[in-house]
Amino acid sequence: xxxxxxxALGVLLLLAFIxxxxxxxxxxxxxxLGTVMGFTAQPFDGWLTRKLGNRPRxxxxxxxxxxxxxxxxxxxxxxxxxxxxxxxAIRLVQHLLGPEGPTILGPRATHxxxxxxxxxxxxQERLQGQLGRVANLAAQAAGFLVxxxxxxxxxxxVALWTMNSVLRDWPRIEHHLEYLLPLHxxxxxxxxxxxxxxxxxxxxxxxxxxIVQGVLAGIGFAIFGVPQGVTWAALLAxxxxxxxxxxPLVWVPAAIWLLSTGHPAxxxxxxxxxxxxxxxxxxxxxxxxxxxxGGSAEAHPLLMLVGLLGGISVFGIxxxxxxxxxxxxxxxxxxxxxxxxxxxxxxxxGEAPQLTSGGTAxxxxx
Length: 366
Known about the structure:
Structural class: mainly alpha
Shape: elongated
Radius of gyration: 27 Å
Number of domains: 2
Largest sheet: 2 strands, antiparallel
Order of helices and strands: HHHHHHHHHHHEE
Number of helices: 11
Strand content: under 5%
């Protein structure tokens, strides 16, 4: 092939790739989720393949089916928890706004309202009127959930299809990438391996950090006297996958409830607990270490923090996975380039590079 033909073919391939990526952008969440689910399930898929007498297609189909059952089960549990808690909250508010007055307010809150000239009976009437609006908003939210369920089903289908393709065809994908990418085959293999490992760590790390947040929140709810703390902690763990607003949607109403029932110290304590331990410690310490640790090209925690927060701001919820993968691929490519420069320096000087105490290669002085 002539050089001009090779360049033209490369440009055509690049343009086609950009168009395919643009068309696939609405399916990014499903593609990313399915890819990392496939990476995470690869050890189990390999074990199942051996147990089924070396039948990889059947093993990948069964593994994907189990993944679909897990996703559907998690969705059903989440909907059940939310529906039960919303119904319980409405019954509680109706009981507290009974004929005896707004008993949701403690004596301190009632005294504070009296200082500002607000009648508890007038407040009760306003709250009862607002309760009807809340019920209407809940009905509208349910309708919106039904409307968006088609998109959710499409995302799940794309994720499961992608998962099955990764489990079944990943060796062929690696082989094709070695010839398609304009890199040395060993560099391509290193980048592909890093992509797989980081994607797996991002998925597992996100799930584990959600569990950690739920456990810490449950401890805080128990300490500060929030009723049904276990259920609210489970809901917080599920909503932690929603960027920025997911976790506060659970603990902020709990803190407001404690404040309104005459427990300001508990409300302040719960707020500090959730801001410092549940949110800040998890987002800035636990999650970056879970996602960034253990790889061959482990990134600095600051870079992983940039990958997590920046990925969420750019890609939405898919950025929880896509952001750390992009950052780690950058680190892997930079270290490959660094090793190649070290080899070139070693070849020019004829001396082996010296190693520091941390294992970093330092080119010898001429």
